What does this fold into?
Amino acid sequence: MIFMNHEPQSVRSMLVEQVFRSAQVSHGQDSSPPRFIVRQYTKSLLAAEPPLVIRARLDVKSFSIAESRVHVLIPRFEGCGRCILYLHGGSYVATFTRQHWNFLAKIAEKTKSVIIAPDYPLAPEHHWSEAYRMLFALWERTGEFLPRKSIVLMGDSAGGGLALGFVQALRDAHLTMPASVIMLSPWLDVTLENPQIGELSPVDPFLNVEALRTAGKAWTGGSNPRRMEISPIYGHFENLPPLSLFIGTKDVLLADCRKLWNICSVTEVPLDYYEYEHMLHVWMLLPIRESGHAVAQIAGILATQAQCADIDAVLEFSKEDEA
It folds into this structure.
């Protein structure tokens, strides 16, 4: 299925874009160690733990696995609940931001879904293989308590690429896979060698291509950057659960998202592709009208592709340190 959104850009979206352009967000890099890490404006938004405002809206439980923290956001409702295993973006070098938590709370409340949000190992201190070890350990734990068909794997930006790489790794390990995979502005190729990226860079007010390349190199840890686990676009997509992808046209990552769409079309792999004209990177996390449209579409995917999980099973899964 292909969905192309050609609606006029909302005023609030235009204002947000102008703020990014005026601040020259896509041109700046932080000079503090490590030199390639996200810019100062992003640092001020980082929040590895769910903020108090989120805890006031949702029940929050946390536990540790493979030396990483996992946060579980549980909406206050009765009855059926689906689960979202969410992998955050941040170029593989930054943790959750407040925008992530606000978005996840919105998704949890609107879809009555439980959010499982691991703070997976990040570069430069860690590399992709350590993140995969942590995710495999977490996936094994989910299987002890939750039906795998109740879990949707979702991620934004780097987390979207990690989601696609991880589901391929699950398939190749002959393990039970999630009900579906939802990718939001995914980073599919850390090499960024797609020639169309150069054409998109001037219209992207948010992403800095050279900063991404440096972060991607740190994430590889000396491994081949074209490994499926690092750049999942070099994998193959047969025998995977249903895939959905959301991307905007003012995003340098659009080039590889369209490439994935073309690959899936040629190989007849089902991919629901949502392309929003005028939208910048991870617009779904922003307080704009178009984000509401994407959330509604995500809710539809969850309702049709995931089964329900018992809330008591979710509570057992989440036990360790109550937040």
Remarks:
- Residues 29-41 have pLDDT under 50 and may be disordered.
- The longest helix spans residues 128-145.
